[in-house]
Structure formats: structure tokens, C-alpha cells
Amino acid sequence: MRLLSIQVGRPRPVPWRRGTVTTGIYKKQVEGRIMLRPHNLEGDEQADLTVHGGWDKAVYVYPSEHYTFWRAELPGMPLPYGLFGENFTTEGLDESTVYTGDRFSIGSAVVEVTQPRMPCYKLGVRFGRPDMPQRFHASGRCGFYLAVVEEGDVGAGDVWKLIDRRNNTMSVLDSYRSYFEEAG
Fold first, then answer.
1. pTM for the complete prediction?
2. Phi, psi at residue 31, to the nearest 5°?
3. The domain that contains 81 carries what CATH number?
4. pLDDT tens digits, residue range 12-36?
5. Domain limits at 98?
6. Which of 21, 71, 120, 141 is the most exposed place for a label (fewest CB within 10 A)?
7. Tally of domains in the chain
8. What is the four-CA torsion angle of 13, 82, 3, 164, rounded to 10 degrees?
């Protein structure tokens, strides 16, 4: 389990449909080491703090393995890491094997898995496809959020070490499915 890439971004206005929306979903890769703070990565911001960011959504993680699926789903579209708005692109972690409450050390930081990411219309903005939130949901490839338990520096190539599994009954994927079963 390893951190392949780190992305950060700041909110910016972008045209969408007949207006403009402000979003922080556009992320750029960071080279070297970066500080992971209690509410986000250094240099990263969220546009709408009512649904993104905060202590329980400080960092968004998306598995690199999902990009293979999306390359088949969206042929010809460039798919650089960070396209889904993730801060961390990982290898060897996915929603079926990671549980809410899992704690990991990464670099000198400690993080805790808090919840799956729910699709929102800003995926459509980022991809230029209004159907992207529905496609994302149907795929079940949601990624997950982290809370920062101990701030520290992180960098691409860092190994994720599981240090505590506080809840082994609900994987992130099960949590995601459960949310939509209850809401539906």
C-alpha cells in the first residue's frame, strides 16, 4: 500500500451550463514532501465547506487501480491522477478492503478513514459531462475521506501502514452501499 501521487488545488470559478460555479476539484500534482494539516494539505482548499473539507474530510483518496476502469469507460479522454479531485492517489488500497475507522501512518502523519465520497455535480463540471456523477455512482468506485489524527509531512512513494483497525464490520464500500439503500 503506497501513496503514488499528491494533488492540491484552490477554488476557482469555471463555466458550467449557463453560469459559473466555484470549485476546488481541479488539482495539480505536487512534487516533494508536503505538510498534512488538521483540515487539509498545505496549498489545498475547498470551495464549499458545507459538503467538502473539515476535520472529517481533510483529504480525499482515490485508488489508482480505478483509473483502468475509467480508461475503458471514457476512451480517448486523458485521465491524469487528480482528475476525480483526489488529494491522494494510492496503490493497493480500495473501498472493499479499507474500513471506516482504519488508522494509517503515512510519512510522519497519522490519518483515519472516515467515510466514502458521495458523488456531486462538480464531477460533471470537471469531466465536462453532466452524466459523470451518475456514472461515478454506478461504478461503486467512490474513494474515501481521511481525518488527520496527527499532522506531518507526506510525499509520493510513502508506504501506508495500517496501525489500528477500529471497525472491522463495515468496509468503505459497504458504507457507501448502505447509505444509498437507506436513502433510496
1. 0.94
2. -95, 150
3. 2.40.33.20
4. 999 888 889 999 999 999 999 999 9
5. 2-183
6. 71
7. 1
8. 60
